[in-house]
TrEMBL record:
This is HIT family protein. Coiled coil: none annotated. Pfam families: HIT. The lineage of its organism: Bacteria, Pseudomonadati, Pseudomonadota, Gammaproteobacteria, Pseudomonadales. Residues 12-120 form the HIT domain. PANTHER family: ADENOSINE 5'-MONOPHOSPHORAMIDASE HNT1, HIT FAMILY PROTEIN 1. InterPro entries: HINT, Histidine_triad_HIT, HIT-like, HIT-like_sf. The active site is at H107. A motif (Histidine triad motif) lies at residues 105-109. One of its GO terms (biological process) is nucleotide metabolic process. GO terms for molecular function: catalytic activity.
Length: 148
């Protein structure tokens, strides 16, 4: 798959934005949506996407949408770090299938990293819904306390 593909409005993230597919929502405003990854690489793995941009990757997205996404990435990362106390945090954004992109709607990964734990392979295993619900409630409460 090339870096210059056409945007598919039926991709899973577009479906989530439209409300046609569910997600474990953490944060939403008019421009940005953040939710838990169903196939997490670590505990607390979240995704942040623009809602109004039909962009496949960083080469397609307009600067204003990208800036709004990154502002939320920074704020949400602070909340995740404060609440989950990881030893590190990885911020990742992939462009094109050879780079590891699997959903062709631009998105940013927030991946907490814990000492002594290797990074799981993305999409190797689906998280348990009950665990995602508990984590979602915990993080939504922490986000509300933070005021973002």
């Amino acid at each position: 798959m090339s870096l210059t593909i056409s945007y598919d409005p039926q991709n899973i993230f577009a479906q989530i934005i439209r409300g046609d597919a569910p997600c474990y929502r953490l944060y939403e405003d008019d421009d940005v949506l953040a939710f838990l990854d169903l196939f997490p690489q670590s505990f607390g793995h979240a995704l942040v996407i623009p809602k109004r941009s039909a962009a496949c990757n960083i080469l397609d997205v307009d600067s204003e949408a990208l800036c709004k996404v990154m502002a939320v990435v920074q704020k949400l990362t602070r909340v995740i770090v404060d609440e989950l106390q990881p030893d590190g945090v990885q911020i990742a954004q992939f462009n094109g299938a050879p780079a590891g992109q699997t959903v062709f709607h631009i998105h940013v990964h927030i991946v907490p990293r814990y000492a002594g734990e290797g990074l799981g392979v993305h999409a190797a295993g689906k998280a348990e819904p009950a665990e995602l619900e508990k984590l979602q409630a915990r993080l939504v409460e922490a986000i509300a306390r933070s005021g973002i």
